Amino acid sequence: MRIVFIGPPGAGKGTQAARVCQALGIACLSTGEVLRQAQASDTAAGREIAARLEAGELVPDDLVLRIVTDRLADTDCHHGFLFDGFPRTVPQAVELDKLMDDHHTRLDAAVLFEVGEQELLDRLACRGRADDKKELIRQRLRDYAKLTTPLAEYYQQRGVLHRIDAAGTTDQVYGRIARALGLP
Ligand code: AP5
Ligand code: MG
Fold it and tell me: pTM surpassing 0.90?
């Protein structure tokens, strides 16, 4: 299966991605994880990524697309993949469709995590990642609302959107995803 997970910060994308990838035996990519590693590199791209992450802003599409293009070419992606936190903008989604066309494949499911803002803030307050400071979370939520929520319409039109209630325990949320995707 070829799946993307979309949702606001703290929605549980990473938590559920690990379980779904294990259940399906597919490759998993969190663009956030890759970018956090890449920010340490002493290159122009590394410095640009670090500045964006420190400001809680999205990294430019071209930098993220380079990472995804490289990853899609890996042989383990040929049998399916799950992208956690990608795409995050309509231009990224358009490029992903083009990349999959090049590989003669198409997306099976876009899972949209829906959860109230207070629950997100409570979850992230307990986690303590560098970008979990209150003002950075606000910025990340603003970008999500403005740049990422249009993807719901984009994937709805392509008939692959699954809206998931992401409140409740991790087991409850996994159960909802598993039912939506027809997982064993
Ligand atoms: P990224 O790392 O993807 O961060 P995010 O989208 O803000 O989401 P999080 O990782 O914070 O949350 P999550 O939904 O994975 O939830 P988690 O499972 O951790 O991106 C970071 C940054 O990188 C972005 O801000 C941007 O700058 C850049 N970036 C990444 N991708 C990009 C792209 N495509 N384009 C441009 N820029 C990009 O859960 C959160 C917490 O809640 C955890 O502590 C967890 O244990 C807990 N939890 C999870 N589920 C539950 C539950 N059901 N009940 C209670 N607690 C729960
Ligand atoms: Mg995550």
Answer: yes
Distance separating alpha carbons of residues 29 and 22, to the nearest angstrom: 13
What is the Cα gyration radius of the chain?
16
% of the chain surpassing 90 pLDDT? 96
As a 3-state breakdown, the chain gives helix, strand, coil percent values, each rounded to 5, of 60, 15, 25
143-168: pLDDT as tens digits = 999 999 999 999 999 999 999 999 99
Identify the DSSP state of 22. Answer: H
**Cα 89 to ligand 2 centre (Å):** 16
Provide the pLDDT for residue 184.
79
Does 32 sit in the ligand 1 pocket, CB within 6 Å? yes
Pocket test for ligand 1, best of 35, 120, 141 (most atoms within 8 A of CB): 35
Q: Which residue has the tokens 């999500």?
A: 144
